[in-house]
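Thread: adenosine monophosphate complex, take 2
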Amino acid sequence: MASSPVRPLRAIAIFCGSNVGEGDAYTTAAAALGTAMARRGIAIVYGGTHKGLMGNLADAALAGGGQVHGVITRRLHDKGHLHPSLSKSEVVDGMRARKERMLDLADACIALPGGIGTAEEFMEAWTLNQLGDVDKPVGLLNVDGYYDSFMGFIDTMIERKFLPAAHRDGISLDPDADALIDKLAVFEKPTVAKWM
Ligand code: AMP
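Output below.
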């Protein structure tokens, strides 16, 4: 069998919690992702703040000599949420403009554990891929099984015929940062139509 072509991953958009979550597992995983991306020379595009897992991610990548590009909204910037030492930052009008800009700058997207903001950003990116508006693979860093129940809901969509089974493979899933990036690099989008 022919092997999958490797996608160039120059930058990955990272969606993650503006809180750190309970215990050490999430902060450790965010830092490990930042370190791995710096080591691999892949730039981070993210929400631009020092808050929550976003801060852990950015700090680790910067400490490893990585490129970290923040895209923050005017309102959050004016509240003082901008990380003070990013490689690059830009201020945009609102959340919609920010999502569009983050996706423009990235070759792929990863969601770490997070709240509704993280879920919304991830779902939009996955939807745009499903509709063929972009070809930028999406992955979930499944730290401590955080996304198991979410994938269970995706299975319900499949069982009830709202989603073709092959589209489950439109999400790459792994608990390990390097393994997840490797999956995104060889991702091949499902060829099955969205409409059944
Ligand atoms: P949540 O998962 O609800 O904590 O929201 C996190 C996501 O929403 C991140 O990926 C950010 O893009 C955005 N976001 C929420 N709060 C902030 C903040 N204080 N600064 C920057 N981005 C934020």
